[in-house]
Amino acid sequence: MFLDLLSSGPLGANALALMITALVVGVIGVRVSGARPILVVLMAALGTLIYHLVYLAVLALTGRPVFLDVYLNRFILPGVILNLVLVRQFICC
Q: Which 3 state secondary structure label does DSSP give 75?
């Protein structure tokens, strides 16, 4: 809830995006047997993409302007890269 309170977006948008992301990644993770390192990396990238796309959808549905190219370059791609670097650090060590 603090993420929603501190952002300028609609209240509950971050929580909704995180819940949907956890659901999708959890369902896919249960179907895939074994914890292969490449699957963990792929799930991190997929989870980041799902979170941002759901958040953008909520912004668009609430009437806020959404500039996909700007959001992609400033938030989605750096977020995916950062999450992949962090996951890679935990997997290798």
A: helix
Q: Domain-by-domain residue ranges, the chain?
A: 2-92
Q: pTM for the whole thing?
A: 0.86
Closest CA to 41 of 89, 93, 7, 77: 89
Model pLDDT for residues 2-36, shown as the tens digit of each residue: 888 898 889 999 999 999 999 999 888 777 766 67
Say which residues have a Cβ less than 8 Å from residue 73's Cβ, sequence separation at least 6: none
CA–CA gap between residue 49 and residue 52 (Å, rounded): 5
Handedness of CA 50, 29, 85, 8 (dihedral sign): positive
Tokens of 28: 């896919």
